[in-house]
Design brief:
Shape: globular
Strand order of the largest sheet: 1-30-29-28
Mean pLDDT: 88
Radius of gyration: 26 Å
Helix content: 10-25%
Largest sheet: 4 strands, antiparallel
Low-confidence stretches: 1-38
Oligomer: single chain
Number of helices: 4
Number of strands: 30
Distance between the termini: 64 Å
Length: 427
């Protein structure tokens, strides 16, 4: 064998040995379980390592991670609001001393845009209106109106509004609808400078956000007050002729509207068809499903404790909690979709009223996500219940590493968020 051939033979032996060692290492890696892999994260980038730890914690109750990412480097997440497919998070940067709002698309699982507010936080919760979002900041009286999809600033000014807000604002194009604390009126103000265009007298104070209806032959602005008055107006622009009268108005027998009413579109069963419904929580313990065009009750849930939170709409069902228990209702009929275990022997009246100690899923505070197979509920600060579609509790787990538990009405995914900006979505 020549010298050249010997060298080539030696090289082939080395390559073969290397390949065997590589195969053994790969086989060893494949045989490692997820727990042991997660435990050895010292050599991994800290962001990736923390993300994996959070994903592992979430998988204690979920089946799989749908998506996750880190956002807001150097920022602390202070408050979050869910508006349909959008998650809006207010953050603070201690270095720049600026507040920002970050918009996360819950359907696509990515950050959509960032809006820098400046040195003052938000004074009120933002609401996604008809294509726009109005932000009202504290102290400096700024109002910033942005495109809900792109975050582009359409209008912005720093000056006190002509009206003193008593509740959150909603918006449509160049018009922002603001409940007026001083005059008991709902005002349509110009987005460009905050001037009052027109206002309408309502009975009582409105401490909740006005509701804009969608997908109807006529768009309405619906306002609820502490006097139990519900009023619907034509959603006119600030520079149009003011509405002369309400389209309809009714006084609810069970007192004040205690949280933001919700406008939802409920599928009717016919392909592509849906029915509009305004869900209204009240102090007296009744939850109303109201026709937006007439003000008539489509259904009413009667309970003996007041509702203090805005209801959630997920997968054809409404989840609403009064001071005592969580209810799960069929959105179209208003009937209770879930009944607690042991209620089979109760009378029809007892089944519909259930004025007894809450049990099981009823002890939860709100719904987080729902699909055809499972429902996630939040109980207390950070305990998540995983339920079957009949309300039976399958798993209950504390998730202490997470700071915000999102009510995701856009998809069936459980969305969790930390104060340092890690977002994890599971299914």
């Amino acid at each position: 064998m020549t010298k050249g051939n010997c060298i080539w033979a030696l090289a082939l032996v080395v390559l073969a040995l290397s390949a065997c060692a590589s195969d053994e290492n790969d086989a060893g890696m494949r045989s490692m379980d997820d727990t042991s892999m997660a435990a050895d994260l010292s050599h991994i980038d800290p962001v990736i390592a923390r993300k994996r730890e959070l994903e592992g914690e979430a998988l204690g109750i979920a089946d799989a991670v749908a998506w996750s990412f880190k956002t807001g480097m150097g920022e602390t997440f202070r408050r979050v609001w869910e508006n349909g497919r959008w998650l809006l998070a207010e953050t603070y940067n201690a270095h720049s001393k600026n507040y920002s709002v970050r918009s996360i698309d819950l359907v696509e699982g990515r950050e959509q845009w960032v809006l820098v507010l400046g040195e003052h936080p938000l004074a009120r919760a933002p609401h996604v209106g008809d294509g726009t979002i109005a932000f009202l900041t504290d102290i400096d009286g700024a109002m910033i109106v942005v495109n809900a999809v792109t975050g582009g600033r359409l209008y912005a000014f720093r000056s006190d509004l002509d009206v003193v807000p008593s509740g959150d604002a909603t918006s449509k194009g160049d018009t922002v609808y603001v409940p007026n604390h001083v005059s008991q009126r709902i005002a349509a103000v110009a987005a460009e400078d905050g001037r009052n265009g027109w206002d309408f007298r309502i009975r009582g104070f409105c401490n909740t956000a006005p509701v804009l209806t969608y997908g109807q032959s006529q768009q309405f602005l619906i306002v609820g007050t502490d006097a139990g008055e519900l009023t619907a107006l034509r959603a006119k622009r600030h520079n149009e002729v003011p509405p002369e009268r309400a389209e309809w108005s009714r006084t609810l027998d069970t007192g004040a509207v205690t949280a933001d009413p919700r406008f939802i579109m409920v599928p009717t069963g016919d392909e592509g068809m849906a029915r509009g419904l305004v869900v209204v929580p009240t102090e007296g313990g009744w939850l109303y499903g109201i026709e937006p065009s007439t003000g008539r009750s489509h259904w009413v849930l009667r309970s003996d404790k007041g509702f203090g939170c805005s209801p959630k709409f997920m997968n054809g069902r409404i989840y609403a909690r009064n001071a005592e228990r969580l209810f799960c209702l069929d959105a179209m009929s208003g009937d209770r979709a879930w009944m607690p275990a042991g209620s089979e022997s109760l009378s029809e009246y007892e089944r519909s009223q259930l004025f007894r100690e809450p049990v099981g899923y009823e002890l939860a505070d709100r719904a987080l996500a729902a699909d055809d197979n499972r429902v996630y509920l939040l109980k207390g600060k950070n305990t998540v219940l995983r339920c079957g579609n009949d309300g039976s509790i399958e798993t209950e787990l504390d998730l202490p590493s997470f700071d915000f538990f999102i009510s995701n009405e856009a998809t069936g995914k459980l969305v969790l968020l930390t104060a340092d900006g890690y977002v994890v979505a599971c299914q």
